[in-house]
Amino acid sequence: MSDVQLPNSDKSALDEPDAGRTPVRFRNPGLPAHRHRNADVDPRAARRAEHQVLVLLALSALGTLVFIVAYFAVPLDGTFATLQVSNISLGLGLGCGIFFIGIAAVHLAKTLMPDTEMIDERHPQRGTDAEREDAAAIMVQGGHESGLGRRKFVLGGLVGAAALAPLPAVVLLRDLGPLPGDDLAHTLWDEGVRLALDPSAEPILASDVTIGSVFHVIPENLYESEHFLDEKAKAAVLVMRVDPDVVQDDPSRAGWDVDGIYAYSKICTHVGCPVALYEQQTHHLLCPCHQSTFDLTQHCKVIFGPANRALPQLPIRIDDEGYLVAQSDFLEPPGPSYWERG
């Protein structure tokens, strides 16, 4: 194949190679001419952008306050309507608080912060004293050029919005669940408490649990508790039936199941997510949050993922009417392993 012939206009972009020197194929075109923004040349545009940033910061602060007010003002009485109102108001408040402070930061950077391109050559990590003084002077100059010192309202709004932004996290951390200790050591499960379907609370007949099936279970007396949501978070259970021959024999758990019907805590021992996925072919339980996997044939031992403790088993039996009932509470507290366990 013959060499490609470049047009005369393109040949000017190539340097002829000298002996012992690699030719430079393309010349550096340099940076394009800087285009000034309206706010750089028009004081009215700068003031308009400043007001827009201030409005966005105020909306962020308002969203944060809506979240906090909704958290305490909207009562949770267990009905779907109040739960929906609470979730919507909390979500909108938190979303607006985060969204508008982000938009304000972007708008401030694009309209008021300096946008000229600069080149900073690499140098040793610690410069000389003179270079350090120059760096400090550059920082001071940058702060002056940003205009925040002159724009007191924007600076105040930024400080106010940033100060309020962490408050939803503080409120949410307070509501993550019961504190470690006796609260987790005891649940509503007790001798004779029937296993009931979630959420209908209808008791379960042992004859209705077929091999390969799985039931999401709560204590029959759950809704009698004043704080039934907190109690459900501790007492939720999964019930499955398998061929008893596939489960490894453990003399310490003899009599805890009913002809292959097993009940295990639904609360993952990693960080407390609901273990809600059952694979009947492999007899594996999967936590969807971080993929911790528990093997039912090994009494829900952890075989994969970050959890480091098996799911607690609920001992069960059949009562005189054929319903599944608990023999006792869990013999170890359910929930994440990092909580203190007495």
TrEMBL record:
It comes from the Bacteria. It comes from Pseudokineococcus basanitobsidens. Belongs to the Rieske iron-sulfur protein family. PROSITE patterns: RIESKE (PS51296). This is Cytochrome bc1 complex Rieske iron-sulfur subunit. The chain crosses the membrane at residues 53-74, 86-109, 153-173. Pfam families: QcrA_N, Rieske. Residues 1-44 are annotated as: Disordered. The lineage of its organism: Bacteria, Bacillati, Actinomycetota, Actinomycetes, Kineosporiales.
